[in-house]
Write a structure and sequence with these properties.
The protein has five helices and eight strands, in the order H-H-H-E-E-E-H-H-E-E-E-E-E. It is an alpha+beta fold. A hairpin with a 3-residue loop joins strand 2 and strand 3.
């Protein structure tokens, strides 16, 4: 990973302040990682005026904080072990949501969610609805980090893949897979649509 050049601190007091900023960032992440948020334009303007900062600078700063997870090292599945049968299907909103199996690796698990629907529905769907792409998030419990690695599809079919770390147990009985739909990749604007699969 490339680093920005730095000549260090001319005044050690500045280093202490910067470390305090890091402490606050860690506190924010630990306590509110599952409830992301972003200041309103009004709040940013108020803080900018109160603390002698620029509105755009604060907006960019909080945008960077919000996207911190995209800078983290991503676990890529290695060392394939086995397939774990799931065979769960839920019908919701005239669509079928299916998890047929889990690919188990030494360092992660891969969950693939398949979505199928009658292609005749597409003919009556408005063009803006087709272009309004949604984002799906998988939640199992606080012990697991679930990363959506993208979606692909064709007429009447879509596939979403999630990398789960640490690896799921070989016996997944009792686990719930909760798929929540969002308008945005920052997972701050839920559509209100959720599909739950109980294993």
């Amino acid at each position: 990973m490339s680093k920005m050049p730095s000549k260090g601190y001319d005044d050690p007091r500045l280093e202490e302040i910067d470390e305090e900023i890091c402490v606050l960032l860690q506190l924010r992440k630990e306590q509110f990682s599952h409830t992301p948020g972003f200041p309103t334009d009004e709040t940013i303007s108020e803080w900018a005026q109160k603390y002698g900062l620029d509105d755009l600078f604060l907006t960019m700063l909080f945008s960077l904080i919000r996207s911190e997870k995209y800078y983290q090292a991503k676990v890529e599945p290695t060392g394939f072990l086995q397939y774990i049968p799931v065979l769960q299907t839920v019908e919701a909103g005239e669509r079928l949501y299916t998890v047929s199996y889990i690919r188990q690796y030494e360092n992660a698990s891969v969950v693939q969610l398949l979505i199928d629907w009658d292609t005749q529905q597409d003919a009556t769907q408005r063009i803006h609805e087709k272009l309004d792409c949604k984002y799906l998030k998988l939640f199992i419990d606080d012990h697991y980090e679930c990363r959506n690695t993208g979606a692909s599809g064709s007429d009447g079919h879509e596939s979403n893949k999630f990398v789960v770390t640490p690896p799921l147990p070989d016996d997944i009985q009792g686990l719930d897979f909760v798929f929540t739909e969002y308008h945005d990749v920052f997972e701050e604007k839920p559509t209100g649509f959720t599909v739950t699969m109980h294993c």
